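Morning F.,

Quick status update on the modeling queue. The single chain you submitted on Monday has been processed. Sequence for confirmation:
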Amino acid sequence: MVYEKQSYVAGSMCDPGLKLSYLSVYEIIEDSVTELLHGFGFDGLTAMSKYGGMWVFTKNSIRFVRRPAWLDKFTVRCYISGHSALRMFVDTELISESGEQLIRSRVEICGLDLETGKIRKPETLGFDAKYEHPEPLDEIGFVRFPKDHLPLSESVKVRSMNIDYCSHTNNVEYVRFILNTYSTAELAERELEGIEMHYDGQSYEGETLDIEKLADPDGDRFFVRCGGTEKTACRIVWKNS
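Structure tokens below.
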């Protein structure tokens, strides 16, 4: 099954340059994955109520070809592209009216038990291999981040509006915290080619997160830590960098 929906770039989705904002891209992907899984009957809310577990994003890799502008129409295509013993993979594409691929993403998801917090096999939360699409996206993979410490850029406190229905910090909020380390002028000067997020732990309302940042020719690197414990790692690659 391929989940498709028609959309357009609304004003609330725009950045100052009137393009689809990077945060809105993440929100579109997160919503599309949830709606796809809902069509199969094992979305996050159903997993909590029916299977005693929840789905969490563990990785997300996004490639930007071209960001659409205000009022541009596009199609979102989303489908399960594969699985392993403990992970499920979902691919998402944003496609223009002319058929041009604008943005593509691969999300890695795992299931957690609500009582123990331990990883559960996807099959225990309703997944079946027959749901997989036979043609996954090409050239979307995940890199291994070095486990070092980077210079502290800033610290932020998790607030109530950062929390999602699973009662922890929403995935999109980590992207917000990281992109906020750049100024509006810096974001206007260049375009993202790719961004990869690894979600290694959960954080909660009231906790303070330290954002570590290092500019690198191969891509800016980030760690988000809480009390010294890594919660998120990220790499941002700029076009023509």
